[in-house]
Automatic annotation (TrEMBL):
Name the record gives this protein: Uncharacterized protein
């Protein structure tokens, strides 16, 4: 019968011959090797569980981001539809021709700016959710800050979840 080697990490000691009485063959040369394998396995299991949890959280954040992007698209379509409808009206009925705001008659001031604000707010919310999704996926603040055109500290200060 061939002699076996220890299964401990980086341990290549030969194990004693199997007993003639039967039983399980020895797998490790010492308790130290057995403990090293056990710790290594526990570390591996923790790492896999961490990756699975990160993948689940990233999937949730990706769903939130998709919803936010659809909200941005909805606001953009609403603004485009309003501008298209306005373009079909005669010039005297378009907000660009209003001389001043008249809230009592349904003519608020700065109508184009007000219409674009909804789009801007939806886009800012989408960016915040995208940053959260990137952080959940394990991206560093430096990478996120570079994408935003700011420093890592500024990105962290603006978008860290505890500050919201």
């Amino acid at each position: 019968m061939a002699r076996r080697r220890c299964r401990g990490p980086n341990c290549y000691k030969l194990l004693p011959e199997a007993s003639t009485r039967g039983g399980r063959p020895q797998m490790y040369c010492s308790e130290r090797c057995r403990a090293r394998v056990r710790r290594s396995h526990e570390w591996y299991v923790r790492r896999v569980e961490t990756k699975e949890a990160r993948a689940d959280a990233t999937a949730e954040e990706r769903h939130r981001l998709r919803s936010a992007v659809y909200a941005v698209a909805r606001e953009a379509r609403r603004l485009a539809a309003a501008l298209d409808a306005e373009a079909a009206k005669p010039e005297y009925d378009q907000p660009a021709w209003w001389d001043r705001a008249r809230p009592e008659s349904g003519r608020p001031g700065a109508p184009y700016t007000r219409a674009a604000l909804g789009l801007l707010e939806a886009a800012q919310e989408a960016v915040a959710i995208a940053v959260t999704a990137d952080r959940t996926a394990g991206r560093p603040w430096a990478e996120i800050g570079e994408a935003l055109g700011v420093s890592a500290d500024t990105a962290a200060r603006r978008y860290r979840p505890g500050d919201r």
